[in-house]
Amino acid sequence: MGSVAAAAAMDAHMVFVYGSLMADEVVHVLLNRVPQSSSAILNNYHRCGIKGRVYPAIIPMEDKSVEGRVLCEITQPELEILDTFEAVEYERHTVEVSLPEEQKVQVNAYVWGNKDDPELYGEWDFEEWKKSHMSDFVKMTAEFMEEVQQPDSKTRIASKDGFTSPIMNEPATPAAVAMDGGSNDGHKVFVYGSLMADEVVSILLKRVPPSSPAILYG
Asked: Is residue 142 part of a domain?
């Protein structure tokens, strides 16, 4: 409990995590440390799977609860890293969670923006994720951080179906893949390096858009 009190006292942030961020291995790659944490329960929310993705979402739902953890003493720069990692399909909300011994605290949580999204289904299992997907997910997270930490990297906004996501700004060179925004006002982005890997794109955009081989001349 001391870490929770310390976070409140030092103007640090507390973040409720319920999916891949419950794994210390993933958190360490993102923050270069593993903050103190406490088990926690978020009432009146449901954790569900997302079609085609290995990580979960939470949405408000009465009489349901989500077991997770609260990361304590998260700095503002670390919170911004988590914001970028989660991308804009998630919205950071303030929620109340129950800690051991029934202590209740206000924390941040990343909630799926569209509670009626037809891509959401069933329940998501952390133990199954650890066995089947964690190793690859840690590698993809490391690649994501390498891109973010490049000194000449920038973020820009790509729009699809009302959502925006940060992507790395790369100059174009021969032999790449053109990624289709998929809608009348969507964008096509020519990629040639790490963004040709579906694993990296999935981490950045939380999906893998349709793509086509392309060659850049001149």
From this structure: no
Neighbours of 8 (CB within 10 A): 15
Residues of the domain holding 161: 150-214
Closest CA to 23 of 34, 15, 12, 13: 34
For 94, other C-beta atoms within 10 Å of its C-beta total: 8
- DSSP letter for 21, please: G
Condensed to tens digits (0 to 9), the pLDDT of residues 88-142 reads 899 999 999 999 988 999 999 999 999 999 999 999 999 999 999 999 999 999 9
- The one catalytic residue among 86, 119, 143, 199: 86
pTM of the predicted model as reported, rounded to 2 decimal places: 0.70
C-beta separation of 55 from 134 below 8 A: no
Asked if 46 and 61 touch (Cβ cutoff 8 Å), the reply is yes
Residue 86 appears among annotated catalytic residues: yes
Do residues 133 and 162 both lie within one domain? no
